[in-house]
Amino acid sequence: MDPTNLPKRTTPHWSLYQRECFERGTASHELPPFDTHPDELERLARERLSIGGWSYASCNAGLGTTHARNRTAFDAYNIIPRMLVDTNARDTTTTLFGKTLSSPFCISPVGINKIYHPEGELPVAKVAGELGIPYTLSTAGSVPIEAAGDANKEGAREGVKGGKGAQHQDGLRWFQLYLPHQDDLAVSLMQRAHDSGFEACIWTLDTWQLAWRHLDISLANYGFYKGIGNDLGLSDPVFNKILQERGIDAKKDVKAAGRTWIDQIWHGKSFSWDKLPWVISTWKRISHDKPFLLKGILSVDDALKAKEMGCDGIVVSNHAGRQVDGSISSLEALPDIVAAVGKDMEILFDSGVRGASDAFKALALGAKAVMIGRLWIYGLSIQGEEGVRHVLRSLLAEFDILMNCAGFRSVAEINSTAIRKAGWVLPSRDDAKL
Predict the structure, then answer these.
(1) Is residue 176 annotated as involved in ligand binding?
(2) Which of 195, 198, 196 is nearest to 174 (CA)?
(3) Do the domain assignments include residue 11?
(4) Boundaries of each FMN hydroxy acid dehydrogenase domain copy (predicted)?
(5) pLDDT in tens, 124-152
(6) Is 267 a domain residue?
(7) Which is the most buried residue in 49, 160, 395, 416, by most CB within 10 A?
(8) 117 counts as catalytic
(9) 274 in a domain, yes or no?
(10) Is 284 annotated as a binding residue?
(11) Interatomic CA distance for residues 130 and 156, integer angstroms
(12) What pTM does this model have?
């Protein structure tokens, strides 16, 4: 926390955001924008959002048991702090696909951000670029691919100039693919992503159809069908040709256009492993061999199949509990998948992360990086760009401080020896006397 104790580091001193908050609050009575405890973020977001916006942000599949299990799974592990470790020059970097990241955090793909804020994905892409956090744009995004790419690039340049964290002046962005029913539309989306500087393609596999989400259904809460948040599709030349062939004028009937768009990429058609070679080869051809990942993997057999078929990485994810009620938690699935394919593929973790200790535990179990979603969604909902920035800077500071307090000098030191399975019973006082 002492600004005079600044040994050379490979990353910004994220922890100094804590001091910045204290100094501003005491010197000029300028308090931080809001409390970043996850419970308070949820409360504030619920206050700010419409009932439909809150429903879509918070709804989970069925009874919500998978969402709950994602959280309780972290309680199965405890961190083992180390003392008298020189942590002054901490290294929060990790490496993915040959790129050095300033932290082990990535932005999860989340669709239809315009229901959370009028600017949609743009503030998130910008702040991620500014802080050097990989940004993932969803196919269900509510701004054009090109606009998100430009916002990310702008943020990265500001970050490099201001020393805020970005290590890639052009930003580091990935494109999450929901595979359309028509191949020519899939090719168009991948080509646009590549042309906009997106450096990896992540195919999400667990959303052939939306799960039964009680509150969303009771409210008929589906922005796409209302004509909200379909800009990514409506800016696509191939999709506009589809609309024309079906006699739909998007300007006159935004609801019909929205239904057609989302029905093309989400609903009514599942794919098998037989489709994977075409998707991989298409992306590799378009991108000149940039990384390809599968998202939604929870089974060791599926992880081995992904490796066998040539994927560069996988995201261990259950869609934050939004798709399969009663599913295994992502954290439960992680260790076995890492053991099976971790030496051959990049393994990312997604679902349930609410703070630095959660990320620490996922890294200790073998993930190379963790993806976060609802935290920044709430920040976006509460205060737009500044809300996203405050949430992400707070998370980075919390992680940096956790490493310092727990005695870990680098992300590389966070491995299986850094945690212990919970449930180990302490001896009673009587036993301790023996």
Answers:
(1) yes
(2) 198
(3) no
(4) 30-424
(5) 999 999 999 999 999 999 999 999 999 99
(6) yes
(7) 395
(8) no
(9) yes
(10) no
(11) 4
(12) 0.94
